[in-house]
Automatic annotation (TrEMBL):
It comes from Parvularcula mediterranea. This is Probable alpha-L-glutamate ligase. One of its GO terms (biological process) is translation. The gene is rimK. It holds the Pfam family RimK. PANTHER family: RIBOSOMAL PROTEIN BS6--L-GLUTAMATE LIGASE, RIBOSOMAL PROTEIN S6 MODIFICATION PROTEIN. Keywords: ATP-binding, Ligase, Magnesium, Manganese, Metal-binding, Nucleotide-binding, Protein biosynthesis, Ribonucleoprotein, Ribosomal protein. In the C-terminal section; belongs to the RimK family.
Amino acid sequence: MTLELGWEEWIALPALGLPAIKAKVDTGAKTSALHAFSVEPFGPSSKPKVRFGVHPIPERPDFEVYCSADVLDRRDVTSSNGETERRWTIETKIQFGEESWPILLTLSDRGGMAYHMLLGRQALEAFPGGAPTVVPTESHRQPELSYDAYDKLINRAPQKRALRIAVLTKEPKIYSSRRLIEAGEARGHVVEPIDTSRCYMLINAEKPEVHYDGKALPSYDAVIPRIGSSITAYGTAVVRQFETTGAYCINRSDAILASRDKLYAHQILARDGIGMPVTAFASSPKDTDSLIKLMGTPPIILKLLESTQGKGVVLAETKKAAESVISAFRNLKADFLVQQFVKEANGEDIRCLVIGGKVVASMKRTAAPGEFRSNLHQGGTAQLVKISKEEREVALKAAKSLGLGFAGVDLLRSETGPKVLEVNSSPGLEGIEASSKKDVADLVFQHIERRAASAIKRRRRVGSAA
């Protein structure tokens, strides 16, 4: 089948998420070239990939599309003016109307050129029907496309591609971190664990960077923060820095901070009308009696503001015991909450795992004999549970109120309906995967793939990373 082309044509590179781009057809050039910036290799040396940005519309440098592809080669290419440049080479399908075939494509900075795509004779000769006839006096012999295609691109699911993803964790070998890495790699992504405490930051207007081990980290499509409570302040500063580089963070820094500050989290939940155990907070020792009276008849719960995994949570059976614990906390200069004890919960709570605005799994946790805390780290056990529509709605509303894309929402079943006990921004995966039999780690990456969109429409700072 004969294919006729003009000296300029509209083409599509569907595998790269580029539905429309103008190309100059140049039979005098051997290789084809695509304008690319922020070109960065990633992945294992046995199967390297490359990530890069494209300005498909020459007149719109603010509009960027990010792509990734397997690397075929890195070769020297000599331009028509005699300059030699080493370029990454990839293979992808080119499409003219109904016709498409794979071509080799080199990545080069063509930002100052009228055409951000050059189609050389090597690509033309690869056409299955024989090299197309090029009519040098005509243009657009094939169906014309439009840059309007990118308006639709913004509003639809991004092109499936290999993503470069960082997992911020001090413990890459624990179950949750390991499962995230395994699940991401199984879906074709490159997932890199990074010790949050060893990151340091270059903060400037031109090119904000995160540094690690003596060099700047590359651009990431997405970041999964697994920030330990011991480094909340520094860890969220690192997440905030990744946000400035344009990476999609499944949990943003402000949401993590809000979830870790139990007083602030409860204030947000109360503001949004979300049920929780009656909670009180005071600073002055003179208000101890009044604080306890607000809870009614003991027992009551006393909880450090930054407690985690059930640590720093105390059950006071009597008023005198509550006074003693409060006195001890004050002597330690520790901030704490006083909270109503929901007796009818019987040492059980419900953990709802929320990913991207959906409850994807749930489990019932039961405290060990003689223990009131149901946390698995405190010896509790977990089993599959079916939650009610009301419980599902409360869990979703709580995660949304705190701005978390990935959260463990803990609920108590009380006589007056579900009460939010806590919202965890770094939920563990082991218990929920074992009890629900669901591949929760895989669901995390499905969400990231939907959100780490390839097209980003924004004003690009000079020299900023992708």
